[in-house]
């Protein structure tokens, strides 16, 4: 299984960026934005944006660490105060994420921002059911065990030599790279 080391700082900044561009975004939509941005970035640049472990939940992929943070489970956070200073989580009736400050754009590359912007535009145009159904057609979601981790390799599109080159570069990055 292709996995990456989660970058908490980039994760918090990516989520803060999404919340600043989409005020009141629900946890569901934030999770889908992060999934599609991560997948797009992996396909274009052979590396993810934040490297979180995505879980194949019933309504689609969920970035497990960031979702735990949204749910208030900050015991695994390296810097829980940074999360709480960046984001406000409203829980009624559904968890909503609001930016409490501007995102630290120095933590995100131009390519990270490009893919996040594209994913925000893509997800904003769709309702809950349509977006959930779209994610259920993703190979990574289909091949993962229910409520289990998704394989980043299955997020890589295409076939043949081009796909294999991206997979090889992503594997090398997973072994040696730092997000």
Give me the oligomer status: single chain
Secondary-structure content class: mainly alpha
Count of β-strands: 5
- Broad shape: globular
Rg of Cα set: 15 Å
Helix content: 40-55%
| Helix and strand pattern | HEHEEHHEEHHHH
Biggest sheet character: 3 strands, antiparallel
Give the strand order of the largest sheet, numbering strands 1, 2, ... along the chain. Answer: 1-5-4
Q: Note the gap between the termini.
A: 19 Å
Number of helices: 8
Averaged pLDDT, please?
96
What proportion strand?
Answer: 5-15%
Low-confidence runs = none
Structure description:
The protein has 179 residues and is mainly α. Helix content is 51%, strand content 10%. It has helices at 8-21, 27-45, 64-70, 80-86, 110-124, 128-135, 139-143, 160-176; strands spanning 25-26, 54-57, 60-63, 87-90, 96-99. The protein has a three-stranded antiparallel β-sheet. The chain has a two-stranded antiparallel ribbon with strand order 2-3. It is globular. It starts with 7 loop residues before the first helix and ends with a helix.
